[in-house]
């Protein structure tokens, strides 16, 4: 397992984010000092090559760091997670693209829009791209956006990713979710922008994890194995935050048997969820990409989402009315966990049902 020092720094980020979490929830925006702390901690550079000043870190360390941040603020953990993994996705760009993104700093903050909602045409030296992408988390403070679009080729259209500097896209504030309010998951609009060839690559490479530019292990991982981890780890961290908030709300009070059962079961569910996401990270670090293990990764992520939603619901029930006070962080963690766990990557119909029959019985 890598040890870049990210985890102990993440614990400091968590403490700072917790101080600003109530304000961030109210204003729907992370405090500038929290964004700076995430960047300085090394999340954006975690998977970047050392040749560009990056950390070349691993998935287990990354997962533990995201969970740590999530205990303080789920929105901060979500953005930290995506900043690291978006940079990993950008490593599929040609080498000139790496130079443009990281030549000046390994801490370039990149955001990703995976659905192929744009349209592009081939032109001399690259493509012209237009499109509109919703729910692009962290875009308020992004330096670059990695967006996906369909390209007309004369035959079957192909899906490609395009890397765009901040000046080439517009942000429309459209995120109004009840939870994860400070993730800045807004809409990105691109209007007939030229994207040079070195800032584009095939979506098929992203899905397969076969990186033609970098041979670093973390840059060659199938998306199926890693996708759910992106969103499950922040939710697990937030569930721990909810547990601490619930026990704080009950401190000094007489706890009845029903409340004790809820606390006991919730703590076990959250620990089990952590085990499952760390099991996923271990698969990624050990590079054991068999169909069965990749299906297990998707199962783990979806089951984790179910588990933490149930656990936090029990914590709210145990804490009672005081836990639902607007001044209580418990209700914020509850909203955040439910919102995070609703992500399409954490649904059984998109993950487990799609992969398990083939992986287990050879369909």
TrEMBL record:
Organism encoding this protein: Lentzea rhizosphaerae
Residue span, Acyl-CoA dehydrogenase/oxidase N-terminal domain: 16-83
Domain Acyl-CoA dehydrogenase C-terminal: 229-347
InterPro entries for the chain: Acyl-CoA_DH_C (IPR013107), Acyl-CoA_Oxase/DH_mid-dom_sf (IPR046373), AcylCo_DH-like_C (IPR036250), AcylCoA_DH/ox_N (IPR013786), AcylCoA_DH/ox_N_sf (IPR037069), AcylCoA_DH/oxidase_NM_dom_sf (IPR009100)
Protein name (record): Acyl-CoA dehydrogenase family protein
Keywords carried by this UniProt record: Oxidoreductase
């Amino acid at each position: 397992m890598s040890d870049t020092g990210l985890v102990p720094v993440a614990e400091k980020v968590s403490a700072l984010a917790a101080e600003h979490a109530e304000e961030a929830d109210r204003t729907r925006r992370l405090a500038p000092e929290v964004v700076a702390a995430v960047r300085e901690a090394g999340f954006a550079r975690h998977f970047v090559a050392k040749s560009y000043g990056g950390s070349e870190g691993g998935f287990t360390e990354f997962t533990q760091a995201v969970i740590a941040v999530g205990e303080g603020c789920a929105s901060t953990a979500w953005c930290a997670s995506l900043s690291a993994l978006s940079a990993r996705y950008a490593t599929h760009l040609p080498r000139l693209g790496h130079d443009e993104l990281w030549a000046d700093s390994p801490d370039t903050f990149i955001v990703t829009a995976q659905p192929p909602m744009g349209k592009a045409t081939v032109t001399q030296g690259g493509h012209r791209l237009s499109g509109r992408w919703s729910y692009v988390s962290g875009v308020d403070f992004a330096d670059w956006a990695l967006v996906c679009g369909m390209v007309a080729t004369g035959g079957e259209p192909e899906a490609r990713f395009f890397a765009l500097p901040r000046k080439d896209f517009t942000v429309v504030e459209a995120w109004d979710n009840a939870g994860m309010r400070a993730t800045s998951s807004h809409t990105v609009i691109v209007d007939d922008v030229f994207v040079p060839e070195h800032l584009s690559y095939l979506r098929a490479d992203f899905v397969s994890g076969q990186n033609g530019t970098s041979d670093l292990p973390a840059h060659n991982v199938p998306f199926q194995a890693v996708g759910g981890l992106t969103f499950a780890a922040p939710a697990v961290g937030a569930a721990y935050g909810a547990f601490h908030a619930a026990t704080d709300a009950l401190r000094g009070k007489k706890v009845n048997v029903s409340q004790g059962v809820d606390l006991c079961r919730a703590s076990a569910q959250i620990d089990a969820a952590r085990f499952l996401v760390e099991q996923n990270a271990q698969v990624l670090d050990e590079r054991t990409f068999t169909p069965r293990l990749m299906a297990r990764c998707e199962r783990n992520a979806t089951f984790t989402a179910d588990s933490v939603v149930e656990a936090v619901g029990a914590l709210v029930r145990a804490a009672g009315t005081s836990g639902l006070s607007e001044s209580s962080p418990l209700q914020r963690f509850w909203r955040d966990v439910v919102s995070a766990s609703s992500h399409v990557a954490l649904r059984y119909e998109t993950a487990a049902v799609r992969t398990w029959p083939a992986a287990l019985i050879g369909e």
